[in-house]
Amino acid sequence: LPLGERLQRRIVDADDKGLAQDLDEALATKPALDIVNEDLLAGMKTVGELFGSGQMQLPFVLASAEVMKKSVAHLEPHMEKSDTEGKGTIVLATVKGDVHDIGKNLVDIILTNNGYTVVNLGIKQPVGTIIEAAVAHNADAIGMSGLLVKSTVVMKDNLLELNAKGLIDKPVLLGGAALTRAYVEQDLNNLFEGEVRYARDAFEGLSLMDQVMA
Ligand code: B1M
Question: Which ranges carry the B12-binding N-terminal domain (predicted)?
């Protein structure tokens, strides 16, 4: 198989034997982030489709996710870093009830490499913890990630809690596969007294942070 397809297959088959060599070979031909976006994420997409159609069982999805994480960890030192630092602080979390963190951690890497301080709280974070961290770190923004349909409801409840606590001065960034731009920027923006924005991917997350800090 050509290298790109081989990397995709490695994610789908959770095959990490010789993974580092393949990644190094790919690094010789293109930037680390292109490998993530073009090859590894294509593999994860297939995993999602196979799981969604009942052709792949959960333990295999988990194994694929582990190989994805290993790959990103291998590539991370090769990602471009800006030399500007201290551009702003964001508290980042996967919301309550949701364990998906690959996308959130990519957002962390992209923002950190571009000069932001990221307070990454991890997965399954209740809104109270997110609020405490945002206040304690005097964050410029709050980022919430969630992939489950039920997480879109959790995010809505979290925004209502931010209203109730009067914490409406920090823009909120939302991302994750179950969200749509319309839901976030119309429905949720109507009920949140501050500003809430949708990030389709980690790069949009970065450009939104750049807008917030401008
Ligand atoms: Co789960 N899972 N999973 N899963 N899983 C999905 C999300 C699902 C769509 C699969 C499917 O059915 N086709 C489905 C959700 C269905 C729904 O809600 N309607 C699903 C399900 C059902 C479940 C369980 C309920 C399964 C079960 O237990 N029966 C369970 C849930 C557990 C829980 O959360 N309580 C579960 C568990 C798991 C694993 C643990 C096995 C594993 C996660 C491992 C991990 O993350 N550490 C897993 C995986 C890997 C997936 C799929 C296959 C891949 C997700 C992924 O990592 N994608 C996923 C299928 C899919 O998404 N199509 C699926 C790659 C990642 C880079 O993309 O996270 O979308 P993503 O991030 C993107 C953007 O969304 C954006 O940037 C990233 C790219 O640049 N982004 C942000 C994300 N967050 C952002 C935040 C931002 C900005 C941008 O700013 C704050």
Answer: 1-87
Q: What is the whole-number distance in angstroms between the Cα of residue 84 and the centre of ligand 1?
A: 32
The whole-number average pLDDT for the span 122-133 is 98
ipTM above 0.95, yes or no: yes
The pLDDT of residue 82 is above 90: no
pLDDT at 83 over 90: no
Whole-number pLDDT of residue 13:
98
Most informative mutation of 33, 49, 64, 100 for ligand 1 (most atoms within 8 A of CB): 100
Helix (H, G, I), strand (E, B) or coil at 174: strand
* pLDDT band at residue 188 under the 50/70/90 scheme: very high
- Residues with a CB atom less than 6 Å from ligand 1: 41, 44, 47-48, 51-52, 58, 61-62, 65, 92, 97-104, 106-107, 143-145, 147-149, 173, 175-178, 199, 201-202, 205
DSSP string spanning 40-94? Answer: IHHHHHHHHHHHHTTSS-HHHHHHHHHHHHHHHHHHGGGS---S---SEEEEEEE
**Is 151 tagged catalytic?**
yes
Distance, in Å, from the CA atom of 51 to the CA atom of 32, rounded to the nearest integer, reads 27
Number of residues assigned to the chain: 214
**Phi-psi label, residue 179: left if phi above 0, alpha if psi -120 to 50, beta otherwise:** beta
187, two tokens: 């429905």
